[in-house]
Amino acid sequence: MMNTFFRRSIVLLLALLLLSACSHEAPLVRSARQEQAIDFNLRAQRAFMRGDYQTATDLYESALQLDSAIENIDGIAVNLLNLAKVNQALGKPAVAQRYLDRLLSDKALRYPLVHLAAAATQYGLIRLQAGDVTAAKSWADKAVGYCLSDCKLNGVIANLRANIAIQSNDADQAVYWSEHAVSANKSETQVEYANAIRLLAQSKLLKREFRAAPPLLEEVLGIDKILGLPDKIRQDLLLLAQAQDKLGGAELAAQYRERAARIAATSLK
Asked: Own/partner pairs for 136-140, CB < 8 Å, 24+ apart?
């Protein structure tokens, strides 16, 4: 059974990657349908970030219909990926996989490799969330196979491999891949860079290098506050509490848990 931190990190790992790296790359002159599809997609992104997953689902579906009608291949891929992501966040992995299968198994349309790499990575995350480490490793390998020239997903794939190592209780591999992920994501999206730092902190805890974790978690906490991500801020605080427990700082650990509890209570309102 995966711990709470691991389950949450899996659900959120691709939260902004698919919104930014896989955005519509439309020509300068766009049709009215394509403009509307982009508008739906942007509105869905905002709904997703505020945790309104049902609204995000409806908007992504609307964008998918418009992009499918004009055979906008990039738009179709982006919306399938985002619909998989939203359903994963909703706790519907089977539905998420069906959207990914539509992308990965399409015999009529040829999608850019970056979209296939993103789909394989997300498939790996879903399988890992289900506790199927073997399948997750296989999908990570497939993602690497798709991630060729001009691929921006190397850092995300490294995050997946670090997650796999943590789930497998392989501290050495967890540290190796999370350090690689930190380096690879530093020049990419802030959310994936933050994910990598958090994974490195978890890896240090797994390796029993307890003193190394708090500085990493304080750094990622600062990033998550700038990004305005309550769920991740709560994760950071709970991990800080866990680290302080290991270091004998019971009072400080209690303070971190109280801060996390207040954020959770606010988020539920």
From this structure: 136/160, 136/164, 136/167, 137/164, 140/164
